[in-house]
Amino acid sequence: MAKYQVLLNKALCKSCEICVELCPKKVFGRDKTGKAEVVNADNCIGCLICEEHCPDFCIEVREK
Amino acid sequence: MREVYQKIFRDNLPHIWCAGCGNGIVMSAFARAYDKLGLDKDKTVGVSGIGCSSRITGYLDLNTLHTAHGRALPFATGVKMTRPEFAVFVFMGDGDCAAIGGNHFIHACRRNMDMTAIIINNYIYGMTGGQFSPLTPFGSKASTAPYGSVDRNFDICSLAIGAGATFVARGDVYHTKQLEKLIIEAHEHKGFSVIEVLSTCPISYGRRNKMPKPMDLMNYIKDVTIAKERADKMTAEEIAGKIVTGVLHQSAAVEYNEAYMAMVEKLEVGKNG
Fold this sequence. Notes:
The complex is a heterodimer of chains A (64) and B (273). Chain A has helices spanning 18-22, 49-53; strands spanning 4-8, 28-30, 36-38, 59-63. Chain A has 64 residues and is of the alpha+beta class. Chain B has 273 residues and is of the alpha/beta class. In chain B, the strands form 2 sheets. In chain B, strands 2-1-3-4-8-7-10-9 form an 8-stranded mixed beta sheet, with helices on both faces. Chain B starts with a helix and ends with a helix. The interface between A and B is medium-sized, with 19 and 28 residues.
């Protein structure tokens, strides 16, 4: 059971791919428009690398 | 962390910065550091000049001033002079700080007024179309240097140390935890604190220098930087070409407002006696 919940506000995403590349657990992928998408939510370890490096404040990682 | 952002931001996102711009990363590090410092929003002033990075003050729900090009520090000096109890944070870009405001910068360092200057160095004038700035590395391409810049670049941290700043640090947008810590330390230091933040500009700088993707620049920053604690143990040859991050200089000197008030007191005593 995943301990963390990854919330993504796609309205703010500018498709920079920083989260896709930096996530050590490959939680993020890209959707058809190139924006970030949560593909492996269960893998999240709550390191917050994505949240701290997202320049557009799209990502929020919450403890369940 | 969402709560932190809601507390400090004005709720006017999305911001104007391009995809992958480091300014957003600096702003989030600042928000977290600010939250940890526990300062009163009504007693904090954010001052910025002109440029992409200077738009930061437009998103922060503090007392903010978006001032003339290169003149963020003189405005901040005025604020701190009249309201010494306020916490003052100054946001500047590399061109804003080192070129247009270069003279103001060295004199602010010399005066040692208690404030924190955050210089977001994206190596280029991003907003005006990618002209080279005094911090563009030698040989890098820019719209005004299509074959590579032949101007030697400033080391803004060495410049600040030479000009007399009492706290000088360098952070970057890849190591966000370190950046957050540096902002807290810089604020807690009594005197003029300078933080140079190595940032990314994929559009104006990266595209011209074979690093078109935001992650290319992030990886470049990751590879080129080295923490001061590690660099201290290495030889000069080993750290050649690397950029040292961390607290580079810290010293104690008389703070400007204190010196000024001491002078006022001295003269008042003289008048009454």
